[in-house]
Amino acid sequence: MQHKTWAKSRSIRLKDFDYTSPGAAYHITIGTSQKQSILTNPGINRQVINILKSSADLYGYHLIAYCLMPDHMHILIQAGENPRDLREFVRGFKSYCSNATLSVATPVATKTNTTLWQRGFYEHILRKEENIADTAEYILNNPVRKGLVQNREHYKWCDLMNYVERRDRSHDATDTNVTRKAK
User: Fold this and answer.
1) Residue 30, domain CATH
2) Which of 102, 105, 111, 124 is nearest to 172 (CA)?
């Protein structure tokens, strides 16, 4: 069955998941506006990475890994002890990036005169049985899988940051005792 939304956007977020859960780990994917290859400009990429690092700290997340591809980026983060809502983190990060990168003169930015990012984002909440290190490996190997480099160490726009071990209270989006907000 096809859903008709007529001017309403459907949320792809889990309805009752607590996006402020300490210890929750997320693999986030954000696309560039109109899927353009904007993230090839070293000036923009450096700004995006710096803003990502400062935004993670500001919103209470541990940045584990990231990878900037030409038309999207991957982020692996884990919520600290008192994180702000994941959706606020992504909105803030995207807004800071868009404002900062508008000042970088690029043919793409001046041609499109749009924001840097697509509307929305995708997140995968890591389940109990999923390994953070495996997810980080997947993210870091993205440039190799896409044929941009033969060895991931040769790709400048990926990094493994501070690895944070999962606690016993790992989150699982299917575990109602752990992930549901108290009402």
Assistant:
1) 3.30.70.1290
2) 124
